[in-house]
Amino acid sequence: SKCQHQCVVNFAVMFQESSPLHRGLTILNASTKWTVSSAVLATLLWKRDESVSWCVVGSILNAFNCKVLKKLISAPRPDGALKVDPGMPSSHGCSLGFLSTYTALDQFHLAGPAVSWSLGLGGIFLSSLRVVLGFHTAAQVAVGHAIGCASAYAWRIWGEATVLPLVRENSGYRITLYIVTAVAFAAFAFRVLRDVVTQRRVKKK
Questions:
Q1: Given Cys at both, which of 58, 145, 153, 165 links 93, Cβ 3.0 to 4.6 Å?
Q2: In 3D, which of 98, 97, 99, 119 has the Cα closest to residue 108?
Q3: pLDDT tens across 7-60, in order?
Q4: How far, rounded to the nearest angstrom, does the alpha carbon of residue 162 sit from its chain's CA centroid?
Q5: How many CB atoms lie within 10 A of CB 48?
Q6: How far is CA 151 from CA 46, 50, 162, 170, in A?
């Protein structure tokens, strides 16, 4: 119908690259990596406890596993994507799925179901931007986010049931966890900065 056609046209105009909405979503997507990483680091420095350290180590392992899967599957990104590396599964989706799910589970009894659900839905929304802005297909983001969610659930269950009780009882284990966390975070930060420098060099060429 004419009304449906007009709705489609209006929707297309809203998401044109020159539109304020598209520019706003692009800025939000670009800042997600730095905002989330800064929030994780701030929480780690503020709380300085075993649970946060365990979450950080798990999120970095999750990101590493996603990179390995990307190389093994080697599925291309959608046509017109700004990046040329493999797209399945989405690294952003995987990391956001892990952190939003882990935090949501952690906050369910502390802050209540409403906060928990908001964190989970927020992660889904931020992951979906990778599809809206053309970086990934819907399947790539959905698979990445699902892997992150499943990894977060398994990592938290294993930690609370087995690892963290031992860490809390033994100062040696606790120090080891803190050292592993620091090394893992430093390695992750170095990799992110290296990727940013590489991307800028490619753009200049």
A1: 145
A2: 119
A3: 333 433 444 555 666 667 666 666 566 666 667 667 766 777 888 889 989 988
A4: 25
A5: 10
A6: 25, 18, 16, 26
